[in-house]
Amino acid sequence: MTSPPPKVEQLYVSTLPGLELALEAEASALGWKPRRAEGGVELEGPAGLHQEANLRLRTASRVLLRVGTFRAGDSDTLAEHLGAMDLSRLWDGRTPPKLSVSLHRSRVPGADVVFSAAAYAWGLPSVEQAGALEEEGSGPGLTLLVRVEGDVFTVSADTSGEPLHRRGYRQEVSRAPLRETLAAGILRLAGYDGAEPLVDPMCGSGTFLIEGAWMSMNRAPGLTRAFAFESFPGFDAEAWARRKAQAEADALPAPRAVIHGHDINAGSLGTARRNARRAGVTLALERKDVRTLTAPSPGPGLVVANPPYGKRVGEAEDLPGLYRALGATLRRGFAGWRAAVILPDDTALVKALDLPGARSLPVRNGGLRCRLLLTDAASTS
Ligand SMILES: C[S@@+](CC[C@H](N)C(=O)[O-])C[C@H]1O[C@@H](n2cnc3c(N)ncnc32)[C@H](O)[C@@H]1O
Questions:
Q1: What is the pLDDT of residues 217-252, one digit of tens each?
Q2: What is the pLDDT of residue 5?
Q3: In this predicted model, what pLDDT tens digit does every residue of 166-205 receive, in sequence order?
Q4: For a pocket test of ligand 1, which of 173, 260, 268, 269 has the largest count of ligand atoms closer than 8 A to its C-beta?
């Protein structure tokens, strides 16, 4: 028997380092009242908010549903609290839940204590550890995250499953693709509103272009993928179908402005084209060298770039020259346009790019410390 849905849901939504403000702004624009928290935001709202957050948030990595918070000073008290938690809406009682435990200034000597207490509390021989959630997601069944701070335990259920950057459209990648969530966050931090032209001069597999197109079409990012919450016993399938139908109705058939992608590599453009087709968007793609690129008409708009980082053999020596060429194209070829460039946190490359007056924000790309340089229209002209 599942218990009735709670009147109020509390969520913790995580994001990539550097995108916290973008996530907060996105959640506010959806009419919610996010509270900033370490690595993400907290949200509170009516039953089903976790469905809506998974469906709509472009910059979220994962949506966790709070199950309970309690204090426990020893393993008996811990087992008692874990056993008293109502998991009937989340767990079918058969496939054992997986646990991910994080300890912060905790009095608990090790995560093993939590695993043993959980197995005892739920009458299981043992409880498995969840895999690397950021990379692989939580897989089938219930995954509970237990955060221990001092003697305070916060237990949350992962409602996302596969990480939210996996939208489903990117089944092929070119070299060093950006995560979809990072691309969406950069577009938001650059103030992209979906009504202005967008250009990616080094588009690779087309992540900026497709995320930009979906923003421009007001198309929800979670419309075509599956989520962990769909397998919960308390899953409200009718509410989910209504939410998806509403999101479909809210989406425009095409972007409101032209979205241009270029790359020097013809294979990358093919990848971008096929990914775009899977995402249901039309892009203007043309093979060009960034050294000779000029702004399309109509303009101005936003030009966004993720140049190579020199991690591949033979790439590193040409890198400063390529960054100088990209900078010159942005300053001269895109006069009056805003620019956003994500590059390694490397002073020589920032210098080579030479974007006077650019704001610099710290971000991470695949674990690498990077900078996001943002210029307003005045400094590219
Ligand atoms: C880091 S990748 C971009 C990845 C892309 N953001 C994605 O998500 O797939 C850099 C891209 O720059 C392209 N590139 C390198 N030199 C170029 C040049 N001179 N002109 C245009 N594109 C270039 C590469 O072919 C590669 O696709």
A1: 999 999 999 999 999 999 999 999 999 999 999 999
A2: 85
A3: 999 988 777 778 999 999 999 999 999 999 999 999 999 9
A4: 268
Distance (angstroms) between ligand 1 centre and the Cα of 352 equals: 17
Residue 10: pLDDT over 60: yes
The CA distance from 214 to 182, in Å, is 14
**CATH no., domain 180-217+252-380:** 3.40.50.150
CATH 3.40.50.150 in the chain, residue ranges? 180-217+252-380
Asked if the 8-158 domain carries CATH number 3.30.2130.30, the reply is yes
Cα 160–Cα 249–Cα 228 angle in degrees, nearest 5 = 10
Neighbours of 379 (CB within 10 A): 16
Instruction: Give the tens place of pLDDT for each residue, 42-73.
Output: 999 999 999 999 999 999 999 999 999 999 98
- 328-331: Cβ within 8 A, 24+ apart: 329/201, 329/290, 329/291, 329/293, 329/294, 330/303, 330/305, 330/355, 330/375, 330/380, 331/355, 331/380
Rounded Cα gap, residues 96 and 141, in angstroms: 8
- The continuous run of DSSP H or E covering 113 comes out as helix 111-121
The tokens describing 317, both together, are 């020596």
CA–CA distance from 74 to each of 82, 102, 148, 244 (Å)?
A: 12, 17, 13, 45
Tracing tokens 């006069």 back to the chain, one arrives at 335
- CA-based nearest residue to 198, from 185, 182, 215: 215
Domain with CATH 3.30.2130.30 in the chain: 8-158
Reading the block at residue 311, the tokens are 């991690």
Q: Which two tokens stand for residue 192?
A: 């992209």
Q: Is the CB of 329 within 6 Å of ligand 1? A: no
Residue 312 CA to ligand 1 centre (angstroms): 12
